[in-house]
Amino acid sequence: MSTCTDSNEERNIWNWKSRFVSLICHYSLELSHTMRGSRGFKLKDRCKTTQVHAYNPSSETSTSNPFPFPISKLHFPTINSILQESADSIISLSTAETFLPYGLPRTDSFEPPLELCLKSVDFVESLAELYRKIQMTQDFDKSLVYLEQYALLCSLGDPKLLRRCLQSARQHAVDVHSKVVLSAWLRFERREDELVGSSALDCIGRVVECPNAALLHGYDPNSVFDHCLCSNQISHFGNNFLSSESEEDGVVCFCIGNEEVNCIRGKIAALSAPLKSMLYGNFIESDKQRIDFTHVGISADGMRAVDFFTRTRRLDSCSPNVLLELLSFANRFCCEEMKSACDCYLASLLSDIDEALVLIDYALEERAHLLVASCLQLMLRELPGYLYNPKVLNTFCSSEARERLATVGQASFLLYYFLSQVAIEDNMVSKVTVMLLERLKECANERWQKALALHQLGCVLLERKDYKEAQHCFEMAIEAGNIYSIVGVARTKLKQGQMFLAYELINDIIIKYKPMGWMYQERSLYSLGKQKILDVNEATRLDPTLTFPYKYRAIAMVEDSQIEAAVTEINRIVDFKVSPDCIELRAWCFIALEDYQSAIRDIRALLTLEPNFMMFHGKVRADHLVELLSQHVQPWSPADCWMQLYDRWSFVDDIGSLSVIYQMLINDPGRSVLRFRQSLLLLRLNCQKAAMRSLRLARNHSTSKYEKLVYEGWILYDTGHREEALAKAEESISIQRSFEAFFLKAYALADTTLDSESSSYVIQLLEEALKCPSDGLRKGQALNNLGSIYVDCNKLDLAADCYVSALEIKHTRAHQGLARVYHLKNDRKAAYEEMTKLIDKAQNKASAYEKRSEYCDRDMANNDLSMATQLDPLRTYPYRYRAAVLMDDQRETEAVEELTRAISFKPDLQMLNLRAAFHESMTDFSRALQDCEAALCLDSNHKDTLDLYSRTRIQARQNT
């Protein structure tokens, strides 16, 4: 009996040990009911990836160790303690280390990335200089100047502003090559290739993006506004040549093999000087009626086509193969008119990338300029999908390839700037990226072009750990005028163990130039002890939008075991600037705190921003980590998700809302309305690229035509094509009346200054939208918008009704509209109280504090605006208000300083305009003009700034 009992006990112990080891390898330990209970584990199949379980054992640990983290850090329960647990107990080892196999980051192991764009030490001065350059340049030479503007404004990270630069560059382009590249670049920025069913040659109807219009040489100043005529796309290619007169003095027969082709001698001779010499000159062929063309390289069909062209000047009856023969024949005998006709017509026939890949080499060999341009256009408009196609790489990457393109006028800085940006975005450290940047450097002529190419090449080489080559590139970029490249030199010296020299380089910049946040941020990398934290804090004071200082302070707190304080520190920047690196760090902190629900929320939001995000320095898939963490939180049903979404939406918790929608999409990935709502949240968080991706997915997953049209309309609206968006909305309504179609149309129409008639029409559209089926979240938005239109029409009672109705369905932002109604009714106290309700409810409160400041006295307003600035330093109204108050108090210098501090990290149009006005009132006309020019570089049509600029120039001339 004793032996049997011992045997059973040994067997039980062995079973427990086996399962215990297995479960630890899968990041969890769950023993249910009894030691002999179920052996199944939900995550077993999902945890086979080597990423999550990767473990680099120390020298003391056997390489066969199955544990994903050091065994010494695990607290093993004893056999007796486990046997003493009740049948209903659950034993779990879900410690932070389970989900942090690579540990938390350390302050000594991370650094801010180098910016890849041109970065001026005096951005306002650079903007002003560029505006003057634009004004002094002839219209047909402005295209490259607008490209320079694009390169300069990249540091602001505003997609709409950058798109306007590209549109202006395309509008002023004269040559076919520039038009082809810029129209493809505009298409790439809209990611038109991601729309299911979209062709590379599809056109939204505007000349600036039309592939057919790009193949027409010449400058059209109104092209940015003009609609293209794609239905006539072939009419201008090779079919309208007039017959030229020539002496018809007989027939000549060309023998090709066993076939003979009769042609009119005079018309053949008129094709080129060499043929005229052959048929009428001193050559023996001039006396012959039959000429052997067997070895010339043209078939009988090709020669018949030559004859047909000489008679009609038409090519439309020729097959592509015959056209290629004609092109070769034209090159051999210098028949420029026929070559041009073949070139144009072949270019017009290209319709897909496969044809372009076949013809590109032939076109280059025959130097068919337009055919090469047409081939390139198809390649460029298929990016990034065909970037690594061997034929595409062979066309662009090598020095020899660039030289071949240059022989037909198809190699330029513009081309390689576009290609290199696509490559950097796809894979910064690839060999292809390096090669394209080297070609960009070879094409650079102007100083800014050399500076940009060398700086970007240096950044890529630094990432590839080619430190000496990177340092050389950065030093050459400095010589070309990019002071910021000194940061690159400092980094390369740090990597080569020259930390003191790196410190001296950055310290010299701080001494020589006006100190900026990025300078102190950079110097902190080479500082030690107390000086390091002083530099980090000074960087935040000068530029509160830099993410690295917040991350550094948070990680330092984690190292001191102050994880909750670290979360608070990261929240300071996440609350106004959402970036994947900060969201990831906060998720790490939540995992360390074992707050898995919050960690899952952040990782899901992170996956919304970047669907393929890899955590732990690129070692673990974020979506996989969500699956693991989800086993430790209460699951939500679809109904729970909708309830959670309503709550977070009403609390103005945008990141929480994104997380819920991500979870809902896991269960229902084809739900277009969820993708659309996702895009709205991303736009609110100023994540425009991610928002556009969600919109495209909404369109692609739509199951009905009318729904697709609505999402296509929003894509067009968000990329600045308002009229096209309205057309999509109207087409959708003609198919089926829907909430979103009416809402889109009303929204697009309201985006202008409305007169009474237009306002009435917008009201009607919103009322029609509210009659259509939709969920409460969207109806709340429609009611809020309807209230705003009523306020503009001075129909305050109707507006109040709309806002109250919106609040009843938890559209919390309607408090702001209702407060405005109270204010217009001269009830400031009620307005203040209404905004206080919004502040109490909303998680993101900066805008609420800013708005509430309008309904209280100056001291309370200052307090609210100070809080708004603290919560969101990017909001410009508080700076302008404080500056205006200081100016009213005749504290002019302080007023200018208030604006200058904000402009240094956010060169906003309104703040530049206001500072220019202050300078004008102080009779400092040179600074006033500079601010006006900088503002006009951001928006050349801003009326207030144009008026101020004109007035200041007159005053400046009068005072000289």
Automatic annotation (TrEMBL):
First and last residues of every TPR repeat: 780-813
SMART domains: TPR
Statement: the UniProt record of this protein carries the keyword NADP: no
Gene Ontology biological-process entries: negative regulation of ethylene-activated signaling pathway
Coiled-coil portions: 825-852
InterPro entries: ETO1-like, SKP1/BTB/POZ_sf, TPR-like_helical_dom_sf, TPR_rpt
Pathway: Protein modification; protein ubiquitination
Keyword Coiled coil attached: yes
Alphabetic keyword roster: Coiled coil, TPR repeat
Name by which UniProt lists this protein: Ethylene-overproduction protein 1 isoform X1
Organism, as annotated: Nicotiana tabacum
Gene responsible for this protein: LOC107828942
